[in-house]
Amino acid sequence: MKAFNNFTSKLFIPIVILLYLGILLVSARYFNNPYLWFDEAGQFWIAKGLNHDSAPMSECGTLYDVIVNNQNYNLDPGGFGILLHYWSKISNHHRWLRMLPLSFFLLSILGFIVLSYNWTKNKYIASLAGLIPFLNMMILSEAFEIRAYSMEVLGVIISVLAIESLQKSISYEKLLLWSILLAFFMTSRYSFIIVAFVASTYILYLIYNQDITLKNKILEMCVYALPLFGTLIADYIFAMRFQNPRVEALSYLPYISSNPTVIFTPESQNIILFIVILLWIIFKFRNSDTIRKYKGVLYLAIATNTIFFVLSILGLHPWEGSCRRCISMITLLIISACALGGEVLKKVLEFLDVKYILLLLFVYKISSVGMMLKDNYKARSDAYRDFISANYTEGKIFVDRWESPCFRYLYEYGKLKGTADYPKSFTFMKGEKHARKDKEQKSQSRQDYYKKQPYMNDLYEDYDLLITPELYTFKPEKSNKWKSILKNDRVWIKAE
Question: What is the CA radius of gyration of the chain?
């Protein structure tokens, strides 16, 4: 019996590795998706020094153009766009483009493994911890999306690794290294700046608590702070001051100030319940070695979520359990669960060898998340699938501003390149800039935008096919001259 247990234990890690490879292989359907939806396509064009509304076949811009277009057509600092600018010089194929966010995701898996092993010193628990990013729909979906979210998730893990490293020992070299890394990820999304700020308060606390002279403490603080302050200033100069100078709440995001009911969504309630449990555990076991061991990551998770919550009350940043703009605070809670859960599993495995049962539970959960991801990606690519089903060969095509950047990518760099009379037969609608440099300039209301859009029937004489999920949504009452492909209300042909 003992020999059999030893045999199964030796097989566990190889089986988990095969599971990793199997999951990634199954996930290839999302990696292979040739359709870049609006946000992805917009990010691609910004990385090319262009934007969502650039004219077809425009010449790509320089790094300066990338920065300028990020100022006007994005609400991120722009670091991911700059990375993608150079990344896409190698290839513009959708698989290569998706490899950039996937690389951040794969490093995040490694980060979970490293953190778990450092905490538990148990290779079985650490191998299971690497599966955790596959358990969360939000984190997993961003692994294949050409946006900055997977970069932000890795930044969150880096912030925890920084705290764990500096809790053990502090040196000028380590402070500079972790500061530069955090500064790099501060260019991903503005919400990570909050994480970096909270992590920095704890790191400054660690510096202050050292048994060294005040002069050395000040020098260490300066070494650590310099890259972070420099990056924060750069973020402000090159992006933040242009994008939302009046710090307006965005109508499409869930703020508590404008919609208090976001507190009561199931996902938000789960977050609140988990934080309450964390606070109870911290209070109940405040003098235990385990809580002292994890005080850095627990502080980071609770403080970050508290700041997000307060900012949402003020209408400055969303807070909601299913909002991907909150992915950093959600990731921190997941890491906290991984930390405390690992301690529990370590105790359980001392008495019961249940690692294969745990693996089966992980597989079951991953499969359910995978089904949700499948539905999500299917919905996002409906317009592309409908268009392919229309068997378009010739004729005039009208494309609304939502699908314009997506189909421009498909015809200029993607799957449909060279398959039609492009761009001669296409009319692309334009939207408005995402950001406003003028502090007094207000964004166009949705009602005003709707009023300016044409009725579908008004396009009947000039076009043979419409790629427009928006017009029917805005003005469905005058659309009887058109029929929807696959009845998805996205692509329309004439109703003969």
Answer: 25
Residue 5 has pLDDT above 70, yes or no: no
Work out whether strand 491-494 and strand 482-484 pair parallel, antiparallel, or are unpaired: antiparallel
| CA distance from start to end of the chain | 75
- Using an 8 Å Cβ cutoff, are 282 and 336 in contact? no
In the sheet with 465-467, reading across from the earlier edge strand, the strands are 426-428, 397-399, 465-467, 491-494, 482-484
Residue from 57, 64, 94, 59 nearest 81 by CA: 64
CB-based burial of residue 356 (10 Å sphere; 0-12 exposed, 13-18 middle, 19+ buried)? Answer: middle
Average pLDDT value for residue range 174-185 = 98
- In this predicted structure, the answer to whether residue 436 has a pLDDT above a threshold of 60 is no
pLDDT of the residue at 439: 47
pLDDT at 207 over 70: yes
- Match 């994008």 to its residue by tokens: 243
Q: What is the rounded distance in angstroms from the CA atom of residue 261 to the CA atom of residue 259?
A: 5
Residues in the chain: 496
Question: What are the angstrom distances between the C-alpha of 70 and each of 126, 400, 438?
Answer: 39, 22, 16
Give the separation between CA 251 and CA 443, rounded to whole angstroms: 10
Structure tokens at 265: 């969504």
pLDDT band at 306 (very low <50, low <70, confident <90, very high): very high
pLDDT digit string (tens) for 70-86?
999 999 999 999 999 99
Question: Residue 385 is encoded by which pair of tokens?
Answer: 């699938």
Asked if 327 contacts 136 with a C-beta cutoff of 8 angstroms, the reply is no
State pTM to two decimals: 0.94
Q: Are 142 and 323 in contact (CB under 8 A)?
A: no
